[in-house]
Amino acid sequence: MGKVYVVGMGPGKRDGMTIRAAKALEESDLIIGYTVYVDLLREEYQSKELLATGMRQEKERCSLCISKAGEGKTVSLVCSGDAGVYGMASLLLEMNKDSDVEIEVIPGVTAALSGSALLGAPLSGDFCVVSLSDNLTPWEMIERRLRSAALGDFPLAIYNPCSKSRPEHLKKALTILSEYMDGERPCGIARNIGRDDEKVQVCTLNELGSLDIDMFTTVFIGCSDTVIVNGRLVTPRGYMSKV
Amino acid sequence: MGKVYVVGMGPGKRDGMTIRAAKALEESDLIIGYTVYVDLLREEYQSKELLATGMRQEKERCSLCISKAGEGKTVSLVCSGDAGVYGMASLLLEMNKDSDVEIEVIPGVTAALSGSALLGAPLSGDFCVVSLSDNLTPWEMIERRLRSAALGDFPLAIYNPCSKSRPEHLKKALTILSEYMDGERPCGIARNIGRDDEKVQVCTLNELGSLDIDMFTTVFIGCSDTVIVNGRLVTPRGYMSKV
After folding, report:
1. What is the ipTM score, two decimals?
2. CA of A89: which chain B residue's CA is closest?
């Protein structure tokens, strides 16, 4: 019997993955993932079998992993960022319910953390992550979570702020958040994290609405304590005000 | 002029850090951190200067980094987990306000992600992280955030669930959460993540109150969708119910 590693690759380039993730890929007979991620690995892992499936092929991808592991292969199922957070670990574990394939989840640096690091330290303590994609989550639930995050005064990382099929989601979210905070709230965006055309920008809540934001952008909304220090977005933890 | 890397070391052992974090340590003249973390690095980085400061010495630690970088040294300030989330990045950026030392934040795998991976995939989409330590955050804010997380039906990772000086915090938190969810809610704990005596356990909300939980434990509270599959804690993303 083989094994499946679900590998969080971190942001962008190889440097962003953990040493443990690199070892799992090295140990695998077969690397499976979404076309775009597998293409990034093709040059480095020429000796491995690489299989790519397209968008919306998530069940097929997991099913392939279970079947290849059943044949005795060691398989890495690669995910950008973390293996769990908006990754494939949960679906694979669900689909493995009636099999007994060994599954090891290898965590990775999700965009909330890698984007924060580029901006400064907006997520320095308690925080929330919310995706605006309503592909799998009803918009009512997304709105409920945005309102709850604002009520809790959490710094917030927003994934999938918009895409071609839902260009208005970020604007709807900003309208909701504006009920709870003023337009000068420090915010920021990080786009193409870890890639050659990586770009970050610190701004206010009001300014977010007019920025060029796409599906490769992660948006950060500060909490009431968040400030801009030397151009970096920072949520103080409270050490400076503690006597 | 030198430079400070704030390095998220990930959980426990070297394997949990990113390749980029390992390169930053290698490139540094000096590694600074909390005694326990620096001791873990002592053997591997014998050629480096290592400086440790104790608990509650956070300002002194950051000040030392800025002053050593001012002398032209390349310094790594090491943090367990991520560099930002409950790490030193925000304080260092605050304290660097009137200096012009270059600071690069290198993100790492925080316990919410590494603990999730061990348990299965409880944080598979939107989620919240809340610390129960009231050292820097008033308990009223902690309670507000717990209530907001429950109102938003977020899966929740709880850091610093209790310590010797605040043994009752987790019980108080569980009492609050019980107002919003029933006692059979799937939950889990991960202790000493990435270390030799690593331990994970899947349980219910009711059972959490009687487990052996300390300051090295991260607690996971499922959302209303979270289930236990083959002993793993899993929050489905919705692929299986999507037609």
Report:
1. 0.97
2. B121
